[in-house]
Amino acid sequence: MTTDEVFIRHMVDAIDEIDVILHDISYAQFVSEPMRMHAIVRLFEILGEAAGNLTDDFRTKHAAIPFRDIIGMRNKLIHHYFEADL
Questions:
Q1: Potential cystine with 50: which of 10, 39, 57, 72 (Cβ 3.0-4.6 Å)?
Q2: Is the dihedral of CA 62, 65, 70, 71 positive or negative?
Q3: Mean of the per-residue pLDDT values of the chain
Q4: DSSP 8-state symbol, 83
Q5: Which among 42, 68, 74, 80 is annotated as catalytic?
Q6: What pLDDT score does 82 carry?
Q7: Which CA distances in Å does 20 have to 11, 29, 39, 46?
Q8: Residue 16 burial by Cβ neighbours in a 10 Å radius (0-12, 13-18, 19+)
Q9: Structurally, how many domains does the chain consist of?
Q10: What pLDDT is recorded for position 85?
Q11: 60 pLDDT band (50/70/90 cuts)?
Q12: Helices (DSSP H) in 1-86: which residue ranges?
């Protein structure tokens, strides 16, 4: 398995977990449950970190995917968490 494949697996796993956690809940439920909110934020951090570790070649070959935005979201959640608007 290549390094890119490992990080893509991390991304897919995080997306799958987000889907499970948010399945059939309303926004009101989401924002009223801090543990659920923190879990989702952490999973978005994982998505961005994994995206940032993909090779430039992989990101170039898959230019339709907004990797810069994904990585930027992670950076905002890590470094400017106090500005995050859930």
A1: 10
A2: positive
A3: 95
A4: G
A5: 74
A6: 85
A7: 14, 14, 11, 16
A8: exposed
A9: 1
A10: 82
A11: very high
A12: 3-22, 27-31, 34-52, 56-61, 67-79
- Identify whether 79 is a catalytic site residue: yes
9 catalytic? Reply is no
Band of residue 86 on the pLDDT scale cut at 50, 70, 90: confident
Taking the C-alpha atoms of residue 64 and residue 84, their distance in angstroms, rounded to an integer, is 25
Alpha-carbon distances of 69 from 5, 9, 46, 48, 49, rounded to whole Å: 20, 19, 14, 9, 12
Question: Residue 81 has what pLDDT?
Answer: 85
pLDDT digits (tens, 9 = 90+) for 31-55: 999 999 999 999 999 999 999 999 9
Q: Which domain holds residue 27?
A: 3-83
The enclosing H or E element of 5 equals: helix 3-22
**At a CB cut-off of 8 Å and minimum separation 6, what does 24 contact?**
none
- Catalytic residue, chosen from 10, 23, 68, 79, is 79
